[in-house]
Amino acid sequence: MDKTTDAAVSAVSAVSADRTAPPPSPGRSLWRFADPRSLRWKITAGVTAAACAMALGIGILVHRSTEDRTMGNGRSSALWELEKATAELRGEHSAGRTPSTAPGYIAGDEVPEQLLDRLGPGAGPVTWYDTRKPLQGPWMWAAGRADGTVLAVKVYMGTEERSLQALDRHMRYSALATLAVVVPLTVLAAELGLRRLRRVAGTARRIKQGDLDARTRGRGHDEISEISSAVDVMADALRERLRSEQRFTADVAHELRTPLAGLVTSASLLPESEATDLVRDRVRVLRGLVDDLLEISRLDAGAERAETQPVPLGELVEESVRRTDLEARVTVIGRPVAETDPRRLDRIVTNLVLNSHRHGRPPVEVTVDGTTVVVRDHGPGFPPELLDHGPQRFRTGAAERGHGHGLGLTIAVGQSHVIGARLTLANAEPHGAVATLELPHRAGSAPG
After folding, report:
1. Cβ neighbours of residue 56 under 8 Å, at least 6 residues apart?
2. Which pLDDT score, from 0 to 100, does residue 395 have?
């Protein structure tokens, strides 16, 4: 089998090994909603930043445009007042009156130096925006020379400045109100897309756990629909490849039964000798391999059905360990009774004990507590690849080849699924492999 199909087989085999995910608690759902790493908040932050940048740009543009218009109007008013004062001053000169009596005229000592600097030796007119005394309000000054006399006037700009401040304040309020509407709408719009993505992710997890009939069936023509379609196509192809491999395994096992039967018969007719014992041992191993392949093919096809009945769990486990002819310490707590298929449970326990002796180190400990059976050894533990992907057929996880054909754990996981049990593989501290088989409770009995 190639790597793709092998990974698919391991995913299907690990259905029982994976613990059922508990329903999300309210606290967990709240954390997932508030998680700043979520795409929801990244989209919201991007839209909010864009809205803030747009509001800031429009605000600056409106502020400067209004300010320029206000300053222009102020200069025009000041120049108009200067022009009237100049005309009145010249009329006073022609009437023989002194310049100090001209209406609008400001004495030279009262003219700000900044305005005089702007005017210089020229005749003007010039303007200057005076903000030296904020409490008294800003003024727009205009100055010029009339008949050699410096003439200056000023126009009050406080009303215009307050109008500009009110405009800025209203624009800030409008921007905040817009954000108060945009942000929730963005979160809602992002949630609609994320819900579709989570549905795709959930379908992918179901496929990983062995449900090859899971499909997203996404509708639409956007990018999320393309992802959904790609996941569905991948699941279709994976299912077909897996079924093809399952059919191949079943065909090989069935085709080997006939020549194997002849080989077993021939081996039984050989004269007793050391070579005969060796041949019979290899025939026995080959027969066990074919039986395992047939069992896996039935598990793959879903043809296995459990025949459950109440069984004394402690006695059954002790008998299963005894028949392995391997040393193992069995501890039974209480007198547990389980509703299960004794033949399949015997197969699971036997394979777990054999696997512990083959790949682990003694002592091997088997503990029965309630409806839970724990098999532990003190070897190097399960390899990380097996813990990540589940048991894979024809991969033993051993550093050296030839120590088993890698079907024991695969069969144990498959039979666990048939009887509705949950098989979990883990490593113990400081070392050792732990296989925990949790059987379903009897109806009407208390857990444990």
Report:
1. 175
2. 57
Q: What is the CATH number of domain 309-438?
A: 3.30.565.10
Distance of CA 51 to the CA centre of its chain: 27
Three-state SS annotation for the chain: CCHHHHHHHHHHHCCCCCCCCCCCCHHHHHHHHHCCCCHHHHHHHHHHHHHHHHHHHHHHHHHHHHHHHHHHHHHHHHHHHHHHHHHHHHHHHHHCCCHHHCCCCCCHHHCCHHHHHHHCCCCCCEEEEECCCHHHCCEEEEEEEECCEEEEEEEECHHHHHHHHHHHHHHHHHHHHHHHHHHHHHHHHHHHHHHHHHHHHHHHHHHHCCCCCCCCCCCCCCHHHHHHHHHHHHHHHHHHHHHHHHHHHHHHHHHHHHHHHHHHHHHHCCCCCHHHHHHHHHHHHHHHHHHHHHHHHHHHHCCCCCCCEEEEHHHHHHHHHHHCCCCCEEEEECCCEEEECHHHHHHHHHHHHHHHHHHCCCCCEEEEECCEEEEECCCCCCCHHHHHHCCCCCCCCCCCCCCCCCCHHHHHHHHHHHCCCEEEEEECCCCCEEEEEECCCCCCCCCC
Taken in order 313, 318, 324, 329, is the CA torsion positive or negative?
positive
CATH 3.30.565.10, the chain: domain bounds: 309-438
In tens, the pLDDT along 293-326 reads 777 777 766 667 878 889 898 899 999 899 888 8
- Any idea which residue has 């200057």 for tokens? 128
Q: What is the pTM for the complete model shown?
A: 0.50
Tokens of 282: 């290899």
User: Residue 157 has which token pair?
Assistant: 């700009």
pLDDT, one tens digit per residue, over 400-423 is 433 444 677 888 888 888 888 889
CA distance 437 to 115: 95
CATH label, 234-301, candidates 3.40.50.10490, 1.10.287.130, 3.40.50.970, 3.40.50.1360: 1.10.287.130
Residue 110 pLDDT more than 80? no
User: Which single residue is written with the structure tokens 């992907």?
Assistant: 389
pLDDT in tens, 334-365: 888 888 888 888 889 998 998 888 888 889 99
Residues of the chain with CATH 1.10.287.130: 234-301
Which amino acid appears at position 261 of this protein? A
Q: How far apart are CA 432 and CA 377, in angstroms?
A: 5
Q: Residue 341 in contact with residue 308, Cβ under 8 Å?
A: yes
